[in-house]
Amino acid sequence: MKCSRIALVGGLLLAWTSSAFGSVIDITQDPNEFDQATWGWPNSVIYAQSVIADDVLFSLIEMRATWASGGDILFNVLITGDRVGGAGLGFEPDMTDIRYNSGMQTVAAGAGQVLTSVNPNLSVTPGERLFVVFDTFSYPSSGNGTMRATEFNGPNDWYAPGEFVFVNTGGEQNLGDFNNASWGHRFDNNEDLALLMEFKVPAPATAALLGLAGLAGGRRRRRRA
Fold first, then answer.
1. Pick from 41-45, 51-55, 205-209, 217-221: least confident
2. Strand 57-69 versus strand 122-123 pairing type
3. For residue 89, how many other CB atoms are within 10 A of its CB?
4. Among 83, 178, 76, which residue's Cα sits nearest to residue 131?
5. CA dist 178 to 45, 132, 208, Å?
6. Coil/strand/helix, residue 42
7. Tens of pLDDT along 58-104?
8. Residue of 56, 74, 62, 132 whose CA lies nearest to 99
9. Where are the domains of the chain?
10. How many CB atoms lie within 10 A of CB 90?
């Protein structure tokens, strides 16, 4: 009996481990990447990249940007749902459906290429379309710069399920107003933002493991009594 219980617990843990491999969507492999300009005030205050969720937890976003002029580039990394929109794509970020906000991130004035990483750890639905939004609109004092992207007019679409979209400020007073803005896109140019995004299965709760251990211990105590 003892051996069979150990085998059962071991099998459960093995089954969890084998199903706990997430996936990494890495759009940074294009050898002809370039610095897409210009992102920030007073130009394109929002860049965004759509992504199809690959697992149940959106755990990591990495991007690279370089300062060009003005003060520090101040921005938020947002994750939004999508909505039916224009831009020739049929979908755009839903700026009234913000599911994650990183809070202020910085690329310092005078800095070269800066890697920014955030860990949303956001529960998502596999297969749904989301947008990763880089928002300098919320910081009117932000400088501007460039963001790393795949080759413009290159022969390959490095992430065909997703698209790079952007919008310039046009009198919007809050983020929700951008749902009525005119969004541009790079669909025809095979260009995406050069991001790394990770989806994964969340780690098992410690309480669940302790519960298994407690159950096994209780059975051993009863057997000795």
1. 205-209
2. antiparallel
3. 15
4. 83
5. 11, 15, 44
6. coil
7. 999 999 999 999 999 999 999 999 999 876 789 999 999 999 999 99
8. 132
9. 26-202
10. 10
pLDDT of residue 206: 35
Lowest mean pLDDT among 20-24, 55-59, 76-80, 149-153: 20-24
Q: Are 144 and 133 in contact (CB under 8 A)?
A: no
* 100 contacts 132 by C-beta, under 8 angstroms: no
| Residues facing residue 145 across a β-bridge | 39, 67
- Long-range Cβ contacts of 167-172 (<8 Å, 24+ apart): 167/44, 167/45, 167/46, 168/43, 168/44, 168/45, 169/41, 169/42, 169/45, 169/137, 172/137
| Residue in the structure block whose two tokens are 């020739």 | 88
Q: Which fold has domain 26-202?
A: Jelly Rolls (2.60.120)
